[in-house]
Amino acid sequence: MRHARMLVGLRLAAVRYFDIDYFREEIAANQAGPREITDDAEWRDPIWSCPGFDSADYGIELEMLGGRVFSVTWDPPGMREGIGMREVPLRGTGVSVDADVAVWDVSQRSEWRRFIGAEVTDVGLHYLPWEDGHLSGFWCPRISLLFGIAHVELLLGEGGPEGQLRPSADNVAVLFDPVELPAWEQSAP
Predict the structure, then answer these.
(1) Would you say 187 and 126 are in contact if contact means Cβ atoms under 8 Å apart?
(2) How buried is residue 105: exposed, middle or buried, by Cβ count under 10 Å (0-12/13-18/19+)?
(3) Overall pTM surpassing 0.70 (yes/no)
(4) Residues contacting 105, CB < 8 A, separation 6+
């Protein structure tokens, strides 16, 4: 919560999605480590773009004006299941520094372009209680980023076979100004 609150008052400079590099063998078989996606052919139909939302396999990196970097990623099941936000780069924390991942700078090629330069006016972390035998705690299935009257919802979700939004424990879905959330999203508004 402390890391999320540090976003308030900062302005968004860039957004990057970290995905499984599905086309590495076809496009860059000899390359090792993170691969920045720059080829227009890959941008024509990006795997993360679904009708009405985006979905990142590993997580999202938010770079703010001034250089501060925050990551949003899913946590493994257990005491900290859910999604979390930290003031750290995703590379080296959510994925290893040399991971064979695809890195998509979506700042100008997605709905995020509307928010570049905008100030984060609030961040909401939506927690739910959980129990597992003798253990109990809370998990966070959704984070709300507010930019004045506009908002972006980050939740545990992914694109299904028909492109529909469905729950997921290991993907972060991005919804831009949704009128309503999916029925399976149980956390309070």
Answers:
(1) yes
(2) middle
(3) yes
(4) 14, 15, 16, 36, 37
Residue 182 corresponds to which amino acid? P
In eight-state DSSP terms, residue 119 is B
8 A C-beta contact, residue 156 and residue 172: yes
Instruction: Look up residue 156 and give its DSSP letter.
Output: E
- Tell me if 65 sits within 8 A of 184, measured CB to CB: no
Could you give the CA distance from residue 95 to residue 147 in angstroms, rounded to a whole number?
28
- Give the span between the Cα atoms of 181 and 115, in whole angstroms: 20
Highest mean pLDDT among 8-12, 90-94, 166-170, 176-180 belongs to: 8-12
Q: Are strands 135-147 and 53-56 parallel, antiparallel or unpaired?
A: unpaired
Of the two residues 175 and 141, the one the predictor is more confident about is 175
Closest CA to 105 of 157, 153, 155, 43: 43
Predicted confidence (pLDDT) per residue in 29-46, tens digit: 888 899 999 989 999 999
Q: Rounded distance, CA 73 to CA 56, Å?
A: 9
Helix (H) or strand (E) holding 63: strand 59-64
| Phi and psi based region of residue 178 (left: phi greater than 0; alpha: psi -120 to 50; beta: remaining) | beta
Strand partners, 24: none
Instruction: Please state the rounded mean pLDDT for residues 91-120.
Output: 93
CA 124 to chain centre: 15
